[in-house]
Design brief:
It contains 17 helices and 21 strands. By secondary structure, it is an alpha+beta fold. The protein folds into 3 domains: about 160 residues, FAD/NAD(P)-binding domain (3-Layer(bba) Sandwich); about 120 residues, Protoporphyrinogen oxidase, mitochondrial, domain 2 (Polyamine Oxidase, Chain A, domain 2); about 100 residues, Orthogonal Bundle (protoporphyrinogen ix oxidase, domain 3). It binds flavin-adenine dinucleotide (FAD).
Length: about 450
Amino acid sequence: MEPLVDTVVIGAGIAGLSAAWELQRRGLTVSVLERTPRAGGVILSERFDGWVIDGGPDSLLVQKPAGVALCHELGLGDRLHPTLTPRTAYVLRGGRLHPIVEGSFLGFPLSARALATSSLFTWPGKLRMGLEVLVPRRTDNEDEALGAFVARRFGREAAEYLADPLLAGIHAGDADRLSARALFPRLVAAESRHGSVLRAFRTVRGPASPDGAFVSLPGGIGELTDRLEAALMPGTLRLSTPVTRLHHDGAFVVSTDAESIRAKAVIAAVPAYAAAALLGELSPDASRLCAEVPYASTATVALGYRRSQVSHPLSGTGFVVPRRERCPILAGTWVSSKWPGRAPDGCVLLRAFVGGGRDPEGFARPDEELVSVAHDALARVLHISGPPLFSRLYRWERRSPQFEVGHLDRMAAIERHLAAVPGLFVAGSGFRSIGIPDCVADAREAAARAAAHTAASVPARS
Ligand SMILES: Cc1cc2nc3c(=O)[nH]c(=O)nc-3n(C[C@H](O)[C@H](O)[C@H](O)COP(=O)(O)OP(=O)(O)OC[C@H]3O[C@@H](n4cnc5c(N)ncnc54)[C@H](O)[C@@H]3O)c2cc1C
């Protein structure tokens, strides 16, 4: 007879690892099965010759405390550090970089002074943005695309130069398809409660933290998943172990090519399409809905240069690229200006992002072409002479879930169907979470529910 554990966690990204950690803390037996030879999912940090490179995420948002709290719990609290100053981010317009002025929230200048001093917008555009306070609030409760929301309240220019590159860009998505309510609920709530986004944030927003909004770790965000992996009891995590089938015969049966494990509860912490492939026998309806969650693919190109090769002062964190600019990258990060200790003395580390929901063909380019497209785009904007010292390419195929209009309704329906299969949970970025802190919180919550189910369930045969 197959072994029986309290819970099997499928997937060892940050969500799966966090769920396993929470289950272990609660004294439950747990097995984590990961398809690839490496834990961490899209979190991947490389260190060599004085360079520290994040191939995927590079920061934790402090305002959502679950990521930072987990670092403290794992003894990494003292290693967290804020971004370097100045923290200015830029938007490319007309081939030039325009700063997002101080006194902005999500890029929207909150004060008349901030609006007046912004070089990003034309005067008619600024006037239209300032008139946001007079735009009547929407009365229906329908979900709305992010681009449509921003265009309606702030005008077309704000939609093209803020919503598209900055707000949708964070999610590698298309502003005309992403859901405002799912991704920026505070903007939607500001309109419905205060009648105006500007009015709401002028009144309710406290002073910005002197330490900025983001933190990271000296060895990259991969330190967090490395530490989580090390904190799990030996034998908990099995790498190169894809789950191929999930069914129930008195207990859950989780099958890989080599064996089957019986479990009282299962947490699928995998992309929604991977969950769809596993849920078919237990909940065909949830499986069908999971399969509908769209995903985008992005590539991160990391490039190292000697400082003397780059004419631009790189004084800030980087820039985003509106679609109208017809530039082949989505954004560029000045990694060594954003974080300390990322490049050897006299060198700079840059990252460019290609692809996303806006440019699927960009991701499809061959490796060498992707690297040269990224270098050429950065060289044009930042006046870089000569080739990079090295390049690294990280491909994230179908790893950015797109919370498009209707996502929250779909998610609610998935939850309803899963409720009919007690002990079965989904967690991670394809479902309710955006970013690492949300994934951690969501996975720990799923683990708490799995623990409650396990405690209440009659022992299955073993
Ligand atoms: C390029 C990029 C930059 C980002 N930047 C940031 C940032 O700076 N800050 C931030 O907070 N967030 C950022 N994010 C988002 C954040 O990284 C993700 O939301 C989060 O890491 C997702 O974690 P996850 O565990 O849900 O999924 P994943 O990391 O995708 O992990 C899922 C795991 O499941 C495994 N799996 C799949 N199928 C199976 C199967 N059948 N059996 C076993 N295992 C399986 C996969 O191999 C994978 O390891 C970024 C994302 C990307 C792609």
